[in-house]
Amino acid sequence: MPTSxxxxxxxxxxxxxxxxxxxxxxERIRMEPPLDRVRTQDDLDAALGSTITAEGIGGREAMRLFxxxxxxxxxxxxxxxxxxxxxxxxxxAAVVFDLVVGASSIYAGSWLEGSGAVWAENQALxxxxxxxxxxxxxxxxFVPGGTIGNLSALVAAxxxxxxxxxxxxxxxRVAATxxxxxSIASACEVMDAELVGVPADELGRLTGSALREVLEANxxxxxxxxxxxxxxxxxxxxxDLESVAEVCREHGIWFxxxxxxxxxxxxxxxxxxxxxxxxxxxxxxxxxxxxxxxxFDCCALLxxxxxxxxxxxxQRAGYxxxxxxxxxxxxxxxxxxxxxxxxxxxxWFSLVVNxxxxxxxxxxxxxxxxRYAEAEVARRPELELVRxxxxxxxxxxxxxxxxxxxxxxxxxxxxxxxxxxxxTSHDGETLARFAIxxxxxxxxxxAAILDSMA
Length: 454
Ligand SMILES: *Cc1c(COP(=O)(O)O)cnc(C)c1O
What we know:
Elements: H1 5-30, H2 41-48, H3 59-70, H4 92-103, H5 111-132, E1 139-143, H6 146-164, E2 173-176, H7 182-191, E3 194-197, H8 208-218, E4 223-229, H9 241-251, E5 254-258, E6 283-286, H10 288-291, E7 299-303, H11 306-313, H12 321-324, H13 345-354, H14 356-379, E8 383-385, E9 393-398, H15 403-415, E10 424-426, E11 429-435, H16 443-451
Parallel strand pairs: 2-3, 2-4, 4-5, 5-6
Antiparallel strand pairs: 1-7, 6-7, 8-9, 9-11, 10-11
Helix pairs in contact: 1-3, 4-13, 5-13, 6-7, 6-11, 8-9, 14-16
The chain binds pyridoxal-5'-phosphate.
Cofactor: pyridoxal 5'-phosphate
Family: Belongs to the group II decarboxylase family.
Keywords: Aminotransferase, Decarboxylase, Lyase, Pyridoxal phosphate, Transferase
């Protein structure tokens, strides 16, 4: 029991905070989330003023500000009709466990400090490595997102290539198609590497033959990595991984597969065949916060030869000696970044709770809805499919619409808090796009959105 007045106050404040926060969290987890809306800076300034004060306003009032003003000004990415960009639809188990991770003050950068968490994260990574078909020694870490995952993999690739290269040779190029994610160009910018575009085939894919031509025209020894995409963000296109892997092997170039969005399809038997050849990759990423039902921010980064990544990424400093010289698995050694939250734990917990069959079923469910969306688009005379769907992204046009029509339609649905479907563009044309990764999205949701385009 608290004795002093100070302790009594602290005790009461904690009780108040706990009840306000857990009540909110429980309600949010149980509810059908509202889509919510965007507010302007001026509007929020006027409604909230300055929230940070010298004395503090206390837990109850702070939660009121969040509940009444801030939370409704954040779109719910798990809303079933949020189909823009790539949504995030975490499982109940993952969301609930995220609260536990937050409450647990775990440092998951090193085995010394977070052995239990790192062990569990590594089991989750192993499940993914097995889906890919990576060998026993494969390993890596959970990083904040695909952008850091791709950058970290490319840094490892460059380190390995420069280590191997002949005296005076410094490989500085990366090859990928125009369909590769913007984070690849951004990583090359950060690394002062040159991104060389490979023309895609008629299906939009990177292929071995086009890659071979580009490598030979530029000198294969100048490249340190080839990036294939297993599910492009805009269309969900899976590159021809088998032929790309073969060309990489021929030239001894690091083969990175970006599956940030589409890697989840490895768990779905109906599309697994599209990924043939992925098992040859030197590194791979998938964002469980996209299509594997984990909350932000969670990207699984895996290497075939983790020692190569470790050589490129380990930070050295006197105060870190006890960690860098230890033989145990330190996740921080495999990516850009040092301090890390145990961000893979909510995903691990959900896998343990639900079992992997539930993951396959949930991914298949979203593919069923995508198949339905594709069929509906084909059936409706005012709509036209832009290309056949590989995964769960469906891109289509509304005949007779220009960019302004798509934008007005999208704005109206958001203003009505009905759906969030922003237009995309391809080859200069504005188009409609659904990214379906939420098992709660139904055929009826799709039909209702398509009806609004009639
Ligand atoms: C989303 C995405 C990324 C970037 O991932 P973030 O988690 O947003 O940083 C990279 N590659 C692909 C293919 C993606 O879809």
